Amino acid sequence: MGVPCVRVEREAGEETRSRLAEADLVAGGYEIVVDEAAIYLPVTDPAEVPADLDVVEYDAPARETQTMPSDEVSFEPSYERIGDVIVIDEDDSERARALADAIMASDLPARTVLNRASKVKGETRVRDWEVLATEDETNPTEVVHREYGCEFALDLAEMYFSPRLATERHRVVEQVAENERTFDMFAGVGPFVIPAAKRGAEAVGVDVNEAAVKYLRENARRNGVEERVTAINADVREVADDYEDWADRLVMNLPHSADEFLDAAVRLAGDDCTLHYYDIQHEDDPYGPGERAVRAAAEPEYDVTVETRHTVRSYAPHELNVVLDVRLTR
After folding, report:
1. String of b and e for 24-56 (b: at least 16 CB within 10 Å)?
2. Measured between alpha carbons, how far is 304 from 291 in angstroms, rounded to an integer?
3. Burial degree of 306 (CB within 10 A; 0-12, 13-18, 19+)
């Protein structure tokens, strides 16, 4: 008898599973099936599956009973997976310890459990972590994250990384054309740069975080695109003149302060350039401040056309993380 399943290409499997899990749509009683071309993810309610995902009937076998963290604690646990590192956010030390023990005792593929010990801070937006459990005392915060067919090595203690932005990164990268010139102004370990290069772009990534740039170079090698990737450890404002009029596509994913770098973006932009401008604003006017800032920096040198206004996620009460896809035409 067929089971309703979301069918996706293999490289999108983990990101799609995470999306379905966040919506509580994964049918835990059935096995996830992988064949040569696709992954089949059993779902509880096909009517609630996001419209961009395909639901098919598939003969997924019943799953043998697995132990999950929720089986071991008296509360509903919340956690996030980044590779084989599990991240929790618990202020109560007893709950944190109980959840860590439950995760390590469960059938989750967990090497380390980390508890958030601070908010992101400083210019490089890193945070402090409490290591609650680990099988790797040497590098407990280092991990390899897989996303849409790419692998990203990173160290959570040294750089900012959010797996929750995988869908947004994929949305942008799907627009990249072969042989275009893509410039990520705040590149981190390369989650925009690497897949853009895999699509055939010449990609430049700049970041002030020296450790992140080291991992960006490693990730370019890991994904076989080192010949198309240039990684630069610098404030992008200091290197903009070296790439003046260069970019066909600019990524500005520094939502709290991207407006401070718009003059550099205008110097980098070629005659016809797409700018992905990320911002965090109040829900009453989430797009207006960013659009006004872009126009103030780019006009009249460029015609400015906002092609997409998109909400990436809720950031805080009454605050939204948004993106503007802007066409700059000289």
Report:
1. ebbbeebebbeeeebbbbbbbeeeebeeebeee
2. 9
3. middle
Structure token pair of residue 213: 């740039």
Could you report the per-residue pLDDT of 171-200, keeping only the tens digit for each? Answer: 999 999 999 999 999 999 999 999 999 999
Sheet hosting strand 38-42, strand order edge to edge:
33-34, 38-42, 3-9, 54-58
92, exposed or middle or buried, with CB in 10 Å at 0-12, 13-18, 19+? exposed
Cβ contact 255:229 at 8 Å: no
Give average pLDDT by consecutive 10-residue segment, the chain, 330 residues.
Answer: 88 86 82 88 89 91 80 87 92 92 89 92 88 91 91 95 91 96 97 97 97 98 97 97 98 94 98 97 96 98 97 93 97
User: What pLDDT, in 10s, does the model give residues 51-78?
Assistant: 889 999 999 888 776 788 888 888 888 8
- Residue count (the chain): 330
Amino acid 1: pLDDT: 62
Report how far residue 292's alpha carbon sits from residue 300's, in angstroms, rounded to the nearest whole number. 13
Closest CA to 57 of 81, 33, 88, 85: 33
Query: What is the pLDDT, as a whole number, of residue 15?
Result: 86
What predicted TM-score, i.e. pTM, was given to this entire model? 0.80
Alpha-helical regions (H) of 279-321:
288-298
E runs forming strands in the chain: 3-9, 33-34, 38-42, 54-58, 80-82, 85-88, 112-116, 129-134, 142-147, 150-155, 181-184, 202-207, 229-233, 247-252, 269-282, 303-316, 319-329
Contact in structure between 101 and 68 (CB atoms under 8 Å): no
**Beta strand 229-233 pairing with 202-207:** parallel
Tokens at 281, concatenated = 């604003």
